[in-house]
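Sample log: DNA repair protein RecN.
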Amino acid sequence: MVVHVLEEMRIRALGVIDDAVVELSPGFTAVTGETGAGKTMVVTSLGLLLGGRADAALVRIGAKAAVVEGRITVDARSAAAVRAEEAGAELEDGVLLISRTLSAEGRSRAHVGGRSVPVGLLGELADDLVAVHGQTDQQGLLRPARQRQALDRYAGDAVSGPLEKYAGAYRRLRAVSAEWEELTTRARERAQEADLLRFGLEEVADAEPRPGEDVELAAEAERLGHAEALASAAALAHAALAGNPEDPEGVDAATLVAGAHRAVEAVRSHDSALAGLADRIGEIGILVSDVAGDLAGYADNLDADPIRLGAVEERRAALAQLTRKYGETIADVLAWAEQGAARLAELDGDDDRIGELAAERDALRAELGELAQTLTDARTEAAGRFAEAVTAELASLAMPHARVTFAIHQTETEADGIEVGGRAVVFGPHGADEVELLLAPHPGAPPRPIAKGASGGELSRVMLAVEVVFAGSDPVPTYLFDEVDAGVGGKAAVEVGRRLAKLARSAQVVVVTHLPQVAAFADRHLVVEKTNDGSVTRSGVKAMEGEDRVRELSRMLAGQEDSELARAHAEELLEAARAGR
């Protein structure tokens, strides 16, 4: 049962297509048309809806922007629906609307369920909705990495579980190895840094600075350096306030304030305002006496010891040595010493850390070796089943004697490898296996890598066989094939159509084809037509039914829609397809 169905696409101002609506069916839809009519634009449009790369050159000449809109029915519980709703999209009766706009200047915008979203979200949704296969995908199947991915996908949990653990251990090993490499290669630099830190910390420790000591010493040096001037000023101030015993006739502040207080105190009872002033004059007298006393004490306690001044300046010079090297103030110097001690402890512990890292690295290598062996075993077991299933499908695709096998091996190394099966082998993020898909097209032919031993037509059928096998184990709701029948003709083309029809029983299948043998098996036949009004080429998409479909198949067979012989052959094809499904 197909949960997701791409119901419709509307394409505007894309390539040769001015404005066209592509209505698709849940089963097998064939898209045909003359060369240059724009069949490939259907594939390109779906690619844009799925987050594919946008090229401003695709925008129709004279248009401001190209727009592709799609309507997809989805199960509200599916991963795609949940992810879309997380992005703010709205589903209407189980229908998800997706659009992609590409401006002539190259700007691209995407909308899902009425909400503007990053283009990358379309790619995320595509993983759960559609599998697109074109000529580039066939070429991709030639790469060993893609072949390994196909095998891993078929193996399912037997590979995915160990591979996840392997990938985590592999990432950790890379991090551990990088740290170990850095510590060992920078040993000389670290030793030099440690020596400098030890020297600096010893220098600070020998000086034993106290927090704020530099500020205190600066103040003391300032006071000791001006002791005589300070004492003279204090004596003069004291005499001005309290009088000079050696000058009985002199006038001082205390005497004047006392006289003022006596003058107003005698009459204070006659006016409350004057009484207040009398109180304030009394307070002034007390304050003058206090300050005079403090000045006398200050002068008596002032130390003008030049020896002490020398000691202070010597200490300040020692602290200045520290502040020149390790911080602007003693507080900064002490902070540097704290940080330096921590860093020195770290550097001194590097030897222990190197040992720890080496031990962890060895343990990770051993773990990776075990996991890599588990992956090899799982892949080997799955490879036999996968190859057998693909071989059976090829027999149904007019390659009855072809045989597909997998070669799984590891490359031994004397350098930095892991031990698998008692051998040191090269390893990577996906294990130690090198996977290669081999094809023997007929009896007696040695199995050869498909990159070397498969023709274009054979490669197309191998890819289709792989997808049919996947449909039974890891289905995708919608498949889009762009000329999967390239290089195929005759009986092989009929079998390709038959297998696509079989695939369409459990998934939606859209095929862009130039072969009538394939198109005849479709549940829905769409034709991309182009007309020329003398200045602008416009393409439209029409559904072919009844007589129109016979005429289109006749054109594909003989290039002549009205040829009686071609029409008879087309009707025969349709009848054979209906009987052979």
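Observation: The CA atoms of residues 80 and 86 lie 10 Å apart.
Observation: The chain has a mean pLDDT of 84.
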